[in-house]
Amino acid sequence: MNKYHHLYDQLIQHTNKDNVLINEPIREHTYTKLGGAADFYITPSSYEEVQAIIRFANQENVPFTMLGNGSNLIVKDGGIRGIVMNLQQLASIWREGDKVISQSGARIIDASRFALKEELTGLEFACGIPGSVGGALYMNAGAYGGEIKDALESTVVVTKDGELLSLTADQLDLSYRTSNIPDNGYIVLEATFALKPGSKEEIKEVMDDLTYKRESKQPLEYPSCGSVFKRPPGFFAGKLIQDSNLQGQQIGGAEVSTKHAGFIVNKNNATASEYISLIQFVQATVKEKFDVQLEREVRIIGEDMEK
Fold first, then answer.
1. Structural domains in the chain, sorted by start
2. What is the required cofactor set for this protein (predicted)?
3. Which of 55, 92, 149, 196 is 20 to 30 A from 241, alpha carbon to alpha carbon?
C-alpha cells in the first residue's frame, strides 16, 4: 500500500468507482509499452468530474499527472505517484458549420477522419499522428508540412485550480512542437478546428498518400514513442543518427530502428531505463560526431525504480 491509498473512498465520491484503478501498470497505456504503476489511474466521464478531481488533488496535496493516449511519452520503471488522469471517455467529435469540435480524449486521427466524412479540408496532415487531441494541442503536433496551429481556432481547458477557461489558438503560443499548455498547467478538454469545405475524393487522396508514406517509412511493427527528437535547425535528426552509424544500436531490449533512424523501438521487452539510456547514448554520439545537440520531442515522466 502506498501513502495515498487511504484516499480511495474520498476519491470515488467525485467519479464512478469503475473509473478509478489502483496500482495500474502504465505500460498498458503507452505506445512504448514501458512504465511502472500509477497509484491511481482515473478516467473521468465529464468535465465536472475532471474539475472535481483536480480540486480534490489540490486539497489533499496529492501529486497529479495528465496522461494522453501515451504516444509521445516514456514513463519510468518506478511508475507515477498520486493521481494519473486519462480523458479517454471524453472522446466525442461533432460538426458546427465548417468547424469540427473534438473532445480531448479523442484521437487526432479520428478527428481527421471525421473531417473527411464531413467533406472538410484542413486536418489531412493529422491522419497518421497517433496522439490524442489534447496531446496534439499540448505539443502542437504536426506531420508532412502541417501542424495543429494551422487548423486550431480555440480550446476549452481546465486550469490547475480546476476552473474552466476558453482560449483562442493565439493564446496558446503554439510554435514548433510546443505550446504554453504545460507551463500554465492547463488540461485540454475540447478543441475547435476551423476548416473549409472540400472534395471528399481529394481529401481522401491526400490522406491515403500520407498514410502510405507513414506506413512504408516508420517502424510501426514495434512499440515506440514515435519520433524521439525535434528537428535541429538546418539538419534532420534521423539523418544525423544514420550518419553516426547508430541504426541497429541496442541497449537491452531497446533499439535504434533499422527502418527509420529517428525512432527508437521496444524490440524485446525493454525497460524504461534501457530506452532512456539509448536516447542519451544517441544524443552523446551525435553531439560528439557533428556537434549538434539533439533535443527530445518525447516526454519522460515518473520515478526510477527503487534499488
1. 5-86 (3.30.43.10), 93-203 (3.30.465.10), 219-301 (3.90.78.10)
2. FAD
3. 149
